[in-house]
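The material for today's practical consists of a large collection of protein records. Backbone structure tokens are a discrete shorthand for how the chain folds in space. An example says more than a description, so a record of this kind follows:
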Amino acid sequence: MDTVSAQHGLRPSPQYTSLRRWHRRIAWLALLAVFTFALTGLLHPLMTRLQAKPVQFKPPPMPALAQALPAPAVALAAAGIAELAGLRPVHDGSRWWWRVQQPDGRVRYLDTVTGAMSVDAAEPAHAERLARWYAGEAAAPVAEVEIITAFDADYGYTNRLLPVWRVRFARDDGLTAYVSTVDDRLATLSDARKRVFQQSFRLLHSWAWLPAPIRNGWINLLLAAVALTTVLGLTLALRTPVGRRINLRRLHRWGGVTVAVAVLAWAVSGFVQALGNAERERADSPQRPLRIASAQLTAQAEASSGVTLVSLAAAPAWRWGLKPAETTTGRGMAMGEHQHHERPAQGAAAPSAARYVSAVDGRGIADGEARHLAELLQHFGVQGSAAAAQPVLKFTPEYGFLFKRLPVWRVDQADAAHTAFYLDTHSERLAARITDRDRTTGALFAYAHKWEWVTPLAGKDWRDGISAVFAFMVIAVAVGGTLLRRRHR
């Protein structure tokens, strides 16, 4: 018989006894969920504060040229490259090179003046220069330089950029930089401490080591156990007479009532997020394929860190972003585990500031950005725009820094889902496609699971502190219930 019921001379009803029995049975799964999710969830704010941070946030500046670079057609023909899928000038500290990407994926470096092909490992060397620039590491030798073409445990899908180079320095902390030589962008920094956090988070919070169907089923089972245990416990607490004596049972009941609503919100938002994990992991930023005949590139090119070769009206064109976008944002880097909200602008140039010049005859192209955007909209199947395209210069609650790319254009499609397309004309990529369902899921996860509603009121430190107190309260309630179960037995 329940202790409080006995004190009041009451006999528990069969329904009450059945509820209590199921509450105790399911509590074991709920206890496992609380320990795995709550404790590992505390690692995220720790990681964001303790992880390695970049020293630089923009690509390395390019030296000024007295005159334009020679037209690349001659150098490409001499190297036997008839067609290419990407071209831009890079500087190695002493001279200029054409970074040529071929349709088969191979990358070659050609001297812009002589047309000679680099005989050294030019691409890994360029990756090392970028890694040293962003990490601020000039002295330590490099232990490893490796191309990464798929996401793994250390470089998760939330980093979005592929392919990248992994440059690991021979340091005690294992400092590693992931850089994209396609656009000189930093993807993320990592070190031994961050890898421990990531592995713990991956092992017991996201369960990312399990195949997607098994993982989602397991997470949903744990969260369902938490929700059901909470509902049963809340029902029992409200049906139990209130006693005056303070003991473990009463503390467990009062603590459970205190955190019940927050726990339900946490479990439901986690459940909704888990439902879309498999789809999000397959998500990529599709790119319009570029195929340019080398013989067409007969115009000289001005060298700058923001220049890239694009296709406009089926002809090659040089595109200049007059101010390079920030590589990272937030606390110092795009951490990537989850989408964060309300990040401040980091000085990204407006997309409309881009300048287009024909790569065939060197003439300027009027309204090049607008025409380029229209072609990309057609390629990615955007139909019936609800309004004019809007430049996006900073990360927002909808387009968080999880998507990595700035500046971009937002185009709203006139459909029932209010689909928003975010396009990056610099890389000719569809950076994001967001519907009403994505907005609802993101808002629920941000405000019910991560407590982002505290941030505008008190700041991130208070948010993390309050959520940590909540996590420890939930753990205390779960441990108290376990002790009561053992005492009952």
Remarks:
- Residues 1-9, 328-347 have pLDDT under 50 and may be disordered.
- Residues 460-488 form the longest helix (29 residues).
